[in-house]
Amino acid sequence: MTWLVTGGAGYIGSHVVDALRGAGIGPVVIDSLSSGHREFVPAGVPFVLGSILDEELVERTLTQHAVAGVIHLAGFKYAGVSVQEPLLTYEQNVTGTAALLGAMERAGVDKLVFSSSAATYGTPGGDIVTEATPTNPESPYGESKLIGEWLIRDQGRARGLQHTSLRYFNVVGSGSPELYDTSPHNLFPIVLRALTSGQTPRIYGTDYNTPDGTCVRDYVHVADLATSHVAAAQSLAAGRALEPIYNLGSGDGLSVRQIMTAMAKVTGIDFEPEIGPRRAGDPDRIVADGALAARDLDWVMRHSVEDMVASAYAAQRHAAGV
């Protein structure tokens, strides 16, 4: 059995590729390398350089490799930047998803696992997000992911596409030192780059209604995330019915202060974070409930905060040749 991974040369996608191989499923990768890395794709895994906007290329790839299903991760993933680049965001995430669905229909591929986002919720009223929490995206990125879910849902109704969409917040850590987060916007690489360059990381606000006064967010290890993407693919391949939406969440979250403490402990770099003012719009606590995914998709938080930091730090050092 072969599955196509769109965006399979990226940080999350490369971990999904590894998890597929570990489960005995043959992956094929298509990636434009706009943010992915060719070296993240293992030797022996078929790699197609190109965009999901190229419907002919995608259809040809699906057919030539006898693909049974698709795990769709390709897209523009920077929520903050999407506010300045809405057209690019919609082209990559909405038009790209529509093009992929068209290519799948023509190739007769009827199974899809979609990497969505908890950005579809916006800033929810409660502090625990469930699949029943109303969606209210606050950025073009979040909106584009929600529209992608609608496209997939409607294709399921019209053409019998078997599908599920996975929503999650902050993905961290590394399942292998060779695979690392290269985002300029994510907390872990920002803090680690600051520490290893002699700078002091900053906490924005310490007077939130949380146990230590700093914001609490959901952080999930990338390898755990990849395992559940593969579990979803296996369930669809076996004909098991899945929920249309799953949250991959920790259920309790971690505070920014807890992250900083773990960073100092694991790296051995003693520091006291700078304290800055609150950022507008930052809620006290946002954490997703992962109970449904635990029931259906082998979703387990297998890594402690120290594990998350240690794996991210090892990967950063490997990338720097240390």
Automatic annotation (TrEMBL):
Membership in a protein family: Belongs to the NAD(P)-dependent epimerase/dehydratase family.
Keyword Isomerase: yes
InterPro entries, A to Z: Epimerase_deHydtase, NAD(P)-bd_dom_sf, UDP_G4E
Top EC category: isomerase
A Pfam entry, by short name: Epimerase
Location of the NAD-dependent epimerase/dehydratase domain: 3-249
Required cofactor names: NAD(+)
Superkingdom in the source lineage: Bacteria
Primary gene name: galE
MF-aspect GO terms: UDP-glucose 4-epimerase activity
Enzyme Commission number: 5.1.3.2
Catalytic activity: UDP-alpha-D-glucose = UDP-alpha-D-galactose
Functional pathway: Carbohydrate metabolism; galactose metabolism
One Gene Ontology term from the biological process aspect of the record: galactose catabolic process via UDP-galactose, Leloir pathway
UniProt keywords, alphabetically: Carbohydrate metabolism, Isomerase, NAD
Keyword flag Isomerase: yes
Protein name: UDP-glucose 4-epimerase
Organism of derivation: Arthrobacter oryzae
